[in-house]
Design brief:
By secondary structure, the chain is α+β, with helices and mostly antiparallel strands. Helix content is 33%, strand content 18%. It has a domain of 125 residues: D-Maltodextrin-Binding Protein, domain 2. A seven-stranded mixed β-sheet has the order 4-6-7-8-9-10-11, sandwiched between helices. It binds adenosine-2'-5'-diphosphate and magnesium ion. Adenosine-2'-5'-diphosphate binds next to strand 6 and helix 8. It comes from Lolium multiflorum.
Length: 424
């Protein structure tokens, strides 16, 4: 595994710098680096045999990019290609970490939720690739992680581990002639501090959505979207543990062998799925059933993230017969978008504030696949208000045929729940 091959970052950097000629700035494919002067140190490694040995012949990030997509003619085609490349590279780092995660790779945030070296590493790689590939306009990103905990005394070891992981992931991909210093690592994480909002363009990133699933060895997603004037215009969901074909039974497993799905959607161009290692994109659409008896529904694996009693009551009122399919993360939106199930229900406990990065990519993948995503009252989600989605009800998603009866069942179940006296 690359992260364990014993190539410490300093040595890698020193060897590359010693052997390589300085690149001509005109040939560098990443002028946005100029915007972040402390971001990175780069080199041309074409003559470096040691590094070449670390690289695979055809990096999947590059291959995923070369496949023709329905969105090729859209005004966001370049951004979509960059987003796929960024998510694919981040997914590779996450897979490396998930396979051999250690206790010291996991920390607890101020809100007690877990964060891992892979959450940070994924955010760094996505920021870096977007900066390198998208050369027009200024760069703004609303992302989940920040570097505060990594700047504290005692964080030196974890910062070094993240730096090594990121640089080893970059070194394995022939399309990147770049390494990051520790200052560059911290700057890359903090490039996600934008507040978003209704004007301009903002990338929206959850570097690992479903960290608990990631730690359990279950589902997780790298979720990246682009907001333009307050609207989500593209989304990419990397789901390294999701079967590529479909989830065709209630345990979330599949009949096909291939695992690792990359969902993408651009406004007005539909939604697609391809393998994380670069198969051609296939158009997807939500299931077309109008009979709840044939419908199955997705919800969070974690009981603390959604009220399973309320969702059970909604499903019963609707006439759904199958038990819930419980999986972590926005992988649920991807699975819904290709028709693995018909409904997604999410009802967090009172007081939880939804963040835009937890829904932006998933929502456009579902709507472009022909589905609808609304709050519990049937309103569209509004991603233009900053880092949070201002809603105090739940989020529901399904096809157009089932939405009216689903909304009715949701309203009835909520009303009934509100009438039950609190045990306190
Ligand atoms: N108490 C909570 N209630 C609802 N969602 C939560 C809560 N804590 C974390 N989450 C978020 O729920 C999402 C996982 O969704 P799901 O439950 O559908 O798998 C993640 O974005 C996770 O945040 P994070 O991204 O920090 O892991
Ligand atoms: Mg999340």
């Amino acid at each position: 595994m690359a992260a364990r091959v014993g190539l410490p970052q300093q040595a890698l950097l020193a060897s590359a710098l010693a052997r390589s000629p300085s690149p001509s700035p005109a040939r560098l494919p990443y002028p946005p680096l100029l915007r972040l002067p402390t971001y990175c140190r780069f080199f041309s490694a074409s003559a470096d045999a040691g590094l070449q040995n670390l690289r695979r012949r055809l990096p999947f990030a590059a291959r995923a990019m070369s496949q023709r997509s329905e969105a090729a003619g859209s005004p966001y085609a370049a951004e979509l290609a960059a987003a796929k490349k960024a998510v694919s590279l981040a997914a590779r780092l996450c897979q490396t970490v998930q396979q051999e995660i250690e206790q010291s790779d996991v920390q607890s945030k101020a809100d007690k939720s877990p964060v891992t070296v892979a959450d940070y590493g994924s955010q760094i790689l996505v920021s870096l690739v977007l900066n390198m590939e998208v050369t027009t306009g200024s760069f703004s990103m609303v992302a989940e992680e920040d570097s505060e905990d990594l700047r504290k005394d005692g964080a030196e070891e974890i910062l070094e581990r993240i730096t090594d992981l990121v640089n080893e992931t970059l070194a394995e991909d022939a399309s990147f002639n770049i390494l990051l210093s520790q200052e560059g690592i911290l700057a890359a994480i903090d490039s996600g501090k934008s507040e978003g909002g209704p004007s301009g363009r903002h990338w929206v990133l959850d570097p690992i959505d479903g960290t608990k699933g990631f730690l359990r060895g279950g589902q997780y997603a790298i979720a990246l979207a682009l907001l333009d004037e307050g609207k989500v215009v593209l989304g990419v969901l990397g789901c390294p543990n999701l079967p590529l074909s479909s989830i065709n039974n209630l345990n979330g497993s599949s009949s096909g062998d291939q695992v690792g799905a990359l969902f993408s959607a651009t406004i007005g161009c539909g939604a697609e799925v391809q393998s994380l290692d670069g198969s051609p994109p296939q158009k997807i659409s939500v299931c077309s059933t109008d009979n709840p008896v044939n419908a199955s529904f997705f919800e969070s694996y974690e009981g603390a993230h959604t009220m399973h009693d309320l969702t059970g009551s909604i499903a019963e009122k609707l006439g759904v017969q199958a038990p819930p399919v419980r999986i972590d993360s926005q992988a649920k939106y991807g699975a819904l978008a290709r028709g693995d199930g018909a409904i997604y229900l999410r009802f967090p406990y009172k007081g939880y504030r939804e963040k835009i990065w937890d829904h932006a990519a998933g929502a456009i993948v579902v709507t472009e696949a022909g589905g609808l995503v609304t709050d519990a009252s049937g309103n569209d989600l509004d991603f233009s208000k900053g880092r949070f989605l201002d809603l105090d009800t739940g989020i529901i998603a399904t096809n157009k045929q089932l939405m009216p009866s689903l909304l009715k069942a949701v309203q009835e179940a909520i009303k009934e729940k509100d009438q039950v006296p609190s045990p306190l």
